[in-house]
Amino acid sequence: MSTRLKDAQRVWIIRTADGMYALNAICTHLGCMPNWFASEERLKCPCHGSNFLLDGTNVAGPAPVPLYRAAIKLDLQGEMEIDKSQWENQPGKRDKPPFFLPLPAAGPGTA
Predict the structure, then answer these.
(1) Contacts of 97 (CB under 8 A, 6+ apart)
(2) Where are the alpha helices (DSSP H) in 24-90?
């Protein structure tokens, strides 16, 4: 998890074995900014106790729905672009482009 954009853009960049996504750092309860607790592998809202898994799923507290993911893509120069005008938090939909950026499959001769 990259927290580099958390304060400036209010998103976390999450990389998995299959790809990456931009997770909105705004609690779906009242808009507070959750914090990452690596030892518990949870995002926790300091105000009202909502807890989220790294994929954004709400698992405790008053947050009524999962955290949102922003649309993400690579531009022609290979730079990551995050489009915060497009949001999705429904499992299935959030796990596909444009809300999930799959890693290219390793081809022959690549490490």
Answers:
(1) 73
(2) none
Task: Specify the residue for token string 């995050």.
Answer: 82
Instruction: Measure the CA angle with vertex 102, ends 22 and 107; round to 5°.
Output: 145
pLDDT band with cut points at 50, 70 and 90 for residue 49: confident
Q: What's the one-letter identity of residue 59?
A: V
Q: What is the mean pLDDT of residues 33-59?
A: 92
Residues 93, 86: contact at Cβ < 8 Å? no
Contact 11, 70 (CB under 8 A): yes
Model pLDDT for residues 61-104, shown as the tens digit of each residue: 999 999 999 999 999 998 889 999 999 999 999 999 999 999 87
Q: Residue 24: which H helix or E strand, with range?
A: strand 19-24
Q: Which residue has the tokens 């518990």?
A: 40
- The pair of three-digit structure tokens given for residue 39, joined into one six-digit string: 């030892």
Are 41 and 54 in contact by the 8 Å Cβ rule? The answer is: yes
Cα torsion for 8, 42, 92, 111, to the nearest 10°?
Answer: 80
